[in-house]
Amino acid sequence: MLGWHWLIEWQTPYEFHGHLIDKVLAEEKSSYQHIMLVEFKRFGKGLIIDGKVQSTLYDEHIYHELLVHPLLLSLDNPSNILILGGGEGATLREVLKHKSVRRVTMVDIDEKVINFAKKYLHEWHQGAFEDSRTKLIIGDGYKFVEETNEKYDAIILDLTDPIKDSTSYKLYTKEFYEKLKRILNNNGGIATQATSPSFSLEVYVTIYNTVKEVFKRASASYTYMASFDGLWGFVYGGVSPESLSKDEIDERIRQRIAGKLRYYDGYSHQISFSLPKYIRQEFERINKISTEKEPIYVPA
Amino acid sequence: MLGWHWLIEWQTPYEFHGHLIDKVLAEEKSSYQHIMLVEFKRFGKGLIIDGKVQSTLYDEHIYHELLVHPLLLSLDNPSNILILGGGEGATLREVLKHKSVRRVTMVDIDEKVINFAKKYLHEWHQGAFEDSRTKLIIGDGYKFVEETNEKYDAIILDLTDPIKDSTSYKLYTKEFYEKLKRILNNNGGIATQATSPSFSLEVYVTIYNTVKEVFKRASASYTYMASFDGLWGFVYGGVSPESLSKDEIDERIRQRIAGKLRYYDGYSHQISFSLPKYIRQEFERINKISTEKEPIYVPA
Amino acid sequence: MLGWHWLIEWQTPYEFHGHLIDKVLAEEKSSYQHIMLVEFKRFGKGLIIDGKVQSTLYDEHIYHELLVHPLLLSLDNPSNILILGGGEGATLREVLKHKSVRRVTMVDIDEKVINFAKKYLHEWHQGAFEDSRTKLIIGDGYKFVEETNEKYDAIILDLTDPIKDSTSYKLYTKEFYEKLKRILNNNGGIATQATSPSFSLEVYVTIYNTVKEVFKRASASYTYMASFDGLWGFVYGGVSPESLSKDEIDERIRQRIAGKLRYYDGYSHQISFSLPKYIRQEFERINKISTEKEPIYVPA
Amino acid sequence: MLGWHWLIEWQTPYEFHGHLIDKVLAEEKSSYQHIMLVEFKRFGKGLIIDGKVQSTLYDEHIYHELLVHPLLLSLDNPSNILILGGGEGATLREVLKHKSVRRVTMVDIDEKVINFAKKYLHEWHQGAFEDSRTKLIIGDGYKFVEETNEKYDAIILDLTDPIKDSTSYKLYTKEFYEKLKRILNNNGGIATQATSPSFSLEVYVTIYNTVKEVFKRASASYTYMASFDGLWGFVYGGVSPESLSKDEIDERIRQRIAGKLRYYDGYSHQISFSLPKYIRQEFERINKISTEKEPIYVPA
């Protein structure tokens, strides 16, 4: 029997990738998003938001470890952490592995996503929402950043891509990064997912440029994500993780992390910060930065 | 946002049709079949079995009325009816509209489908399973026909298509029709769904030929089914519904049917039995009949 | 090997149909359109314009015979005919079969399409472009109608669907039909393709309403077109073909047509003008007409 | 307008990737294969063989440079080279860049592919077929290897994947590698494409194991190939390219290669031989080797 129940993810209007769905496990529509948990034939359980594979048990650990640990291991004693987005709770899960962390504030706009995660995504958050250090806030991340009086050692942006007419594109601009800087402690840093070097290379580079413009120090990592059908990128600001050697990373993991990492170690660190030549060339070539007036979007 | 959650139905390995799914309402896997109830963007609620659109609220009434009424209105006083298949309960629903009917035995092999229908498909069966005239049997239709001691006035076959290596293909053969004849009262008749004149015209004609071979009198009707992406066919044996005029059909509906029909009336009757020229030509040309030794299959 | 070379035709943004391509036989891009001749696995040779199956050797004869003959056979002695569109030359081919026809003017905007047809589509036009009665004009049909001093017995519109932001949508409005009326002889009539009753029923009915508004007499026919994945409709103005009986049609074909028809005869005539009940109901319900100010479009 | 002309490549029966085709530039069917040159919207010109993207101007240089140079730069003075497959002529093009090379024998089974390449794929071979060192043989590579009396310094296998019931799967077995060893000079080596670590990781590892079994020394590299929708792997036998440092590679390129490389250099070398952790783990876990009796196949 030919496969018939498909997620067709459009990376651009001229590229689509079809993943066979074995079963729909849960589905909800909030006022913000269409949320669906499925069993994929290839990836096992996968979370789909608005038609995009958000994360799957097959490789979410690669994404979340690479978003969180290069930043936190580059900081001296990260204690007070802010996460924007990250509804599944997996970014939170990784942050909480750091022994130095005393408090994590997670701000997500969509209560339905959070309730969905609590109810169905235990394999993702693994109880992180119940950790006594976790403070969960339902609200608009942009507004939260403008209004909070607190200061953070690290801010992690686990957001949807900058899509035109969405609300998230503003969270990739110079103006927003400046707001972040104001609520960051001295020597603090940020990390953000940075879209796909395969499908939106210019966006990836522009996010890097914009972070660098504001934080002076910036680094970019990448990895292949099978469930995203291509490469995926991350950008870090205020820190220089790539200056840490393989052995330093392994040593810091040993000292500072409680629990196991599945992907990230000194070896994977080196791979992730060694960008392919044709990507490096684009870093040389493109000098665009994203502003509220001239924001960057993923192609749609 | 481009559509991303799709049923892709393969009519043949070289034709597929994609219908956008708005939401999955229920899903189950039995040992026989994968059953899914969805909300389609185009058709509203739809039942999908093993990747085939089985029936949708958009046009299931056309299918079920055309399967049932030409047969029952051609018979004198149909009282004891047998249905094989028809899990949604909509064929049953149509049969029960006939005032002359005293008893309907419905045999379906898949208890899970029946329970699914009872639980989720009220808009299809509309309570037909609870009618005191209904006798529901979970079991193999082929075996039931071989073993029953009862005689029926009408037998209605609402089965999946004759697919190679399935169990249903035997229920379209000469041998099986002969078994049906043995449990039919004098002047009784049968009706069967007969696959798509668009995608499997040879199968449609062969079913007609096979029914004619056994029952001597046979008729074929057809209609366009949007949710099946093409024409759909039906074959009747032992009766000659096409000999009834528009007015006779309207008169018999008035006298013999309790409740309303949405599609079938004298006018639709005439349309349905007026086969297009290129289909009639195939009836002239093809003289194949389906036997257990040389059965006919839909292309796959 | 699973099929890999596909035409995916989008009937609406939530319905697509995939037809396997065996080979691309010719392809051209004009300033107006993308033209492609392929060998389909299911339909044989097929012409694709801007991603829409325009006509295939499998069933183009049904479309073109039903567009042309109900109109011309309803007229007394059609002699001077105007065709707008119809680049393949198949509408022209059908018109030229009428012995009464002395002259056919065909106006098509896209010279590349015409040259493509002359070069590759002989099975469609069958030499019709070379007929001494044919007068071919490359130009804008709308303008031609405004500027011509001639009068015609019949005008046939074989146009692309009324798509938003296209130029063709204006050729389905009341204002345009009034222009047509001015260049029509007394007792003349028009025929137009009228989109799909399956995918754009409201447009089909609105075209009928608009034609009726202007020409007082209007009729609608339909047929199932496999290569269009659904039903297809036609509207005639100034004539009443449905009032002709089966026998009258057969008789007129015998007297007035040179050459063979493959689909259209008295029997097919009756079928084509017998609209299904649910379509008739929409004719009762919808009273919209299309104007330049409030035009009707197919969903896109 | 939604995209309508698609290559749908099936990586497995439960994963497909759609690439929009702008235009078909050339198409031929040989007795072995269906060959098509298209203009892709995303990748520019691309060669499709039997529905698989074979190579595109977007990234073919990555594939061909990584197949050829790690092997040839690991050898001392490679002079006499054998290529099996590689119809586009791009592997040949890369081999000819080595100043030490005196003679390249290329054996391809499909004359139509070669003629197609000569006629349409100049951007791939760039005249390599006309090089005086090139000796082109149309024939079965398997047989050639069994019958030749020559000895080679390097053998490069640029073959289609090991597909069940194809002829190519035998060219990935222990028995075949032993035949290769017999026609290899002392200190010679081989390189083979090794399928996708994303879609057929077990096959990739098994090819490595099999090469190692026969040649004792074996290495594996990989890269992300956008046009193949995932990672792609290569295996080298009889040599240890990964033991060469970044600087040694850069130095050898300078000394031994005439013309420019676009991707491969010391830096890219290091990246390509640094396999991700989860792939390394599979190298530990899987110890299967492929034999003619128990061959390995890609999933289909």
TrEMBL record, chains A, B, C, D:
<dbReference type="GO" id="GO:0008295">
    <property type="term" value="P:spermidine biosynthetic process"/>
</dbReference>
<comment type="pathway">
    <text>Amine and polyamine biosynthesis; spermidine biosynthesis; spermidine from putrescine: step 1/1.</text>
</comment>
<comment type="subunit">
    <text>Homodimer or homotetramer.</text>
</comment>
<comment type="similarity">
    <text>Belongs to the spermidine/spermine synthase family.</text>
</comment>
<keyword id="KW-0808">Transferase</keyword>
<dbReference type="Pfam" id="PF01564">
    <property type="entry name" value="Spermine_synth"/>
</dbReference>
<keyword id="KW-0620">Polyamine biosynthesis</keyword>
<dbReference type="InterPro" id="IPR035246">
    <property type="entry name" value="Spermidine_synt_N"/>
</dbReference>
<feature type="binding site">
    <location>
        <begin position="140"/>
        <end position="141"/>
    </location>
    <ligand>
        <name>S-methyl-5'-thioadenosine</name>
    </ligand>
</feature>
<dbReference type="GO" id="GO:0004766">
    <property type="term" value="F:spermidine synthase activity"/>
</dbReference>
<dbReference type="InterPro" id="IPR030373">
    <property type="entry name" value="PABS_CS"/>
</dbReference>
<dbReference type="InterPro" id="IPR037163">
    <property type="entry name" value="Spermidine_synt_N_sf"/>
</dbReference>
<feature type="domain" description="PABS">
    <location>
        <begin position="4"/>
        <end position="239"/>
    </location>
</feature>
<comment type="function">
    <text>Catalyzes the irreversible transfer of a propylamine group from the amino donor S-adenosylmethioninamine (decarboxy-AdoMet) to putrescine (1,4-diaminobutane) to yield spermidine.</text>
</comment>
<dbReference type="InterPro" id="IPR029063">
    <property type="entry name" value="SAM-dependent_MTases_sf"/>
</dbReference>
<dbReference type="GO" id="GO:0010487">
    <property type="term" value="F:thermospermine synthase activity"/>
</dbReference>
<keyword id="KW-0745">Spermidine biosynthesis</keyword>
<keyword id="KW-0963">Cytoplasm</keyword>
<dbReference type="InterPro" id="IPR001045">
    <property type="entry name" value="Spermi_synthase"/>
</dbReference>
<protein>
    <recommendedName>
        <fullName>Polyamine aminopropyltransferase</fullName>
        <ecNumber>2.5.1.16</ecNumber>
    </recommendedName>
</protein>
<feature type="active site" description="Proton acceptor">
    <location>
        <position position="158"/>
    </location>
</feature>
<feature type="binding site">
    <location>
        <position position="88"/>
    </location>
    <ligand>
        <name>spermidine</name>
    </ligand>
</feature>
<feature type="binding site">
    <location>
        <position position="33"/>
    </location>
    <ligand>
        <name>S-methyl-5'-thioadenosine</name>
    </ligand>
</feature>
<dbReference type="Pfam" id="PF17284">
    <property type="entry name" value="Spermine_synt_N"/>
</dbReference>
<feature type="binding site">
    <location>
        <position position="108"/>
    </location>
    <ligand>
        <name>S-methyl-5'-thioadenosine</name>
    </ligand>
</feature>
<dbReference type="InterPro" id="IPR030374">
    <property type="entry name" value="PABS"/>
</dbReference>
<feature type="binding site">
    <location>
        <position position="64"/>
    </location>
    <ligand>
        <name>spermidine</name>
    </ligand>
</feature>
